[in-house]
Amino acid sequence: MQTSADRQDRHQYPAHWEADVVLRDGGTARIRPITVDDADRLVSFYEQVSDESKYYRFFAPYPRLSAKDVHRFTHHDFVDRVGLAATIGGEFIATVRYDRIGTDGMPATAPADEAEVAFLVQDAHQGRGVASALLEHIAAVARERGIRRFAAEVLPANTKMIKVFTDAGYTQKRSFEDGVVRLEFDLEPTDRSLAVQRAREQRAEARSVRRLLMPGSVAVVGVGRAPGGVGRSVLGNIRDAGYGGLLYAVNKAFPEDLGEVDGVPAYRCVRDIGGPVDLAVVAVPAEHVPAVVAECGEHGVQGLVVLSAGYAESGPEGRERQRALVRQARAYGMRIIGPNAFGIINTAPGVRLNASLAPEMPRPGRIGMFAQSGAIGIALLSRLHRRGGGVTGVTGVSTFVSAGNRADVSGNDVLQYWYDDPETDVALMYLESIGNPRKFTRLARRTAAAKPLVVVQGDGSAPQGHAVRATRLPHATVSALLRQAGVIRVDTITELVDAGLLLARQPLPAGPRVAILGNSESLGVLTYDRCLAEGLRPSRPLDLTTGATAEDFHRALGAALADETCDSVVVTAIPVIGEASPGDAELAAALRSAAAAVPGKPVLVVHVELGGLAEALSAAASTAPAAVEKAPGTEGGAHPLPLSAPLERGDPHRPAGRLPTATAEAAGPPEGTHLIPAYPAAERAVRALAEAVRYGQWRRETADPGKVPEYDDIDEKGAARQIGELLARGEGLTISEAETCELLGRYGIPVRRALPAPTPDAAAEAARSLGYPVALKATAPHLRHRADLGGVRLDLADEEQLRRAYAELIELFGKPEELRPVVQGMAPRGVDTVVRAVIDPAAGAVLSFGLAGAASQLLGDMAHRLVPVTDREATSLVRSIRTAPLLFGWRGSTPVDTPALEELLLRVSRLVDDHPEVVAVTLEPVVVAPHGVSVLGATVRLAPPPARDDLGPRTMPAY
């Protein structure tokens, strides 16, 4: 029987159902519950729906809604009757509702778990994916309210709606009766429904970014009347880059008779522009931005780049101003880059967009770049475009995004765009913060499987202005999870560009074997030592001596590349003096020719102060004006000009063994050829090569990611029942030892019993029930798992030894009530380890493993994997800690049963994956013996699962 309080709860407005979504065409809409205040909006919406769509919804002509209909469709209890609306500009564009029904098809209440669902979408918005998004959200709402199945009746001619249901990926059945198609489908997410949802998410978010990067028309709002200023500068940058679309200058202070500014049509407001505007670049003071956004929204602008500052980076008042900006833009279906952004660049020939504060357009290329702050964006562009900071080798940029405060468009959105962008081969990202680590890791894994992703990650402290989900994971753990996802993690901008240049120009190495050759023995040895330090397998350097000619370099490089025991080659070169020394252009041509003959292996050059060689290697690959003075502060004495060697792979018109002349190469490489990257220091070249080797290994391993095993002895339903009963006692709790043993036992994880011993007699009784030999342990928090402090006594063979050990503990550490002693049966000797699992609110479920004691607690030697863990991931998890040799017979010790350990890890992974209410598990110590494992201690914490998780519907970050 329901109380009045229960009935009130059923009518409380569920604000957590509100969400912004990206639609199929890249626009946005807001989804929210329909309330009694929406009567007028509902009537207006219905009037704009065609007669045909009304017929499909009601199976009969239905020109208008009656007052009774309006009341029914706006009054919901948010439990048995729920209605959601998709809105743009505050007006309805689509609705969906469900009504709970019983087995007889009549209205019902819980525990009935089926509901009828129906949609209506305005004709003008059909085909935008609105119904698919609404289905995801209404299904999530229904699951939250205990509904497990939807039924829908659809006219056979309504093929669009039938397709919405059938394409969703849920398990369903279809029947046909009385001229109506009846569809029934379970709401439990399936692998297919999740795949469909994520594919739709990728297409929608990629298109939303594409609309920003490939606009057909751009308006710069805030163009000053006098030269200078942000708006006027950006206008000039767009114009000078050769933008291929329509460009407009906007400033409300322009005289009414002003026709153009710098040759660009000028207008006093966006509304005055006669044609459509796809992108608006906003460069007005923050207090004037809302009016500009309103103008843009009313004119149908698709996206905004907000350069204006004065938002969340300026404090609490600015943070509220930023939230209002995002809400206002989303109400009009627009996406935002910024605020406080540096801008965007797209070098594609048909676009040529430089809507940024960068005064020069980078040369077109294959590297995509993302940064959050303008300063980092400037540094990245500088290193590639102006060849400053000692960066060796220059390649072009495909797209560049500096997102500023990333209030809306983030690195996740740009990753979605780069994933299938044919113009981008390598992605470079400088992330000062990660707003949604769980989603970023998922997207990074998919992107890295297709193209390299190199990331510099901030130290974990989010800059002011960045909305970041709270995470309890250490920064190092998040970094480890990124590496697991295939991300190439580097620490500096220099390393970011070094790795990016190699990956953009050269094939991935097939393994860690490195050949080293050059005309300097000492530089070769230095390179050799760095390879060893990075975990590579270098061969002894081949010293060509300082008298080596270009022919010698050509011959040696060709031989090294042809050697089947070599996966990559590092060429070292120093300047020499003498008539017989090769000219820079001649040496560059020799290296290019030799590399071209064997195209499957990467080649790198380590040079020392070879300005002429730098120019010769760059040949026709320069990305900036020919006359560039050396940038001040160039690090390491590196030459400021690009050191990119055009690599003509497999020229059919050249004999394979013939050395070309420098003159023949002077014209530079044909379009699309690879380039040899050169570095001013051995450590930089080897570090980049090592990252490429590790990434290549990851790519090969992900080709067969393994599987999540099924275990016949797992009692998933029994565990769910037990968890439900335990949570009925409170919101969050650490369950008792007996309850922990019972829950873990349902997943085939036995825990050795530990009996309390508050007195010597109780200890003796416990030992008799367990059987000797036994262990006596103090479980007080300051002594738990601290055998080094003497709080553990092992191998007690009889009662006399037990009582003596008990007395010693009391004498050393205090009263029994302070020590909390327990008696436990002895486990086989082995290696003590620790297994943990935690559900982090930002990163998701994470499984961790390490050796117990100082290795994990003091040195932080823990490895981590995202749940669910596959069998291959469990194997790599065990082997990825630095102290792993202790498990495999280090220095003659007996190897332990790592297959049993891996099975334990997989069972813990299954437990937290099957039951999101299990928010933390700790097994410590886990003794891994030569045969089997023994769990000697375990704790489990339960809490209600989050209302939305990564299996939920697509949503944009809340504001």
Molecular structure report:
The protein has 959 residues and is an alpha/beta fold. Helices cover 34% and strands 22% of the residues. The protein has 29 helices and 40 strands. The strands form six sheets. It has an eight-stranded mixed beta sheet with strand order 1-2-3-4-5-6-8-7, with helices on both faces. A hairpin with a 2-residue loop joins strand 11 and strand 12. The longest helix has 23 residues. The chain is flat. The N terminus is likely disordered.
Q: Name the overall outline.
A: flat
Helix content: 25-40%
Strand ordering within the main sheet: 1-2-3-4-5-6-8-7
Query: Any idea what the radius of gyration is?
Result: 33 Å
**How many distinct beta strands?**
40
- The share of residues in extended strands comes to 15-25%
Q: What is the CA-CA span between the terminal residues?
A: 39 Å
Rounded mean pLDDT is: 85
What's the helix count? 29
Biggest β-sheet strands, sense, barrel = 8 strands, mixed
Secondary-structure content class? alpha/beta
Low-pLDDT stretches are 1-9, 386-394, 618-672
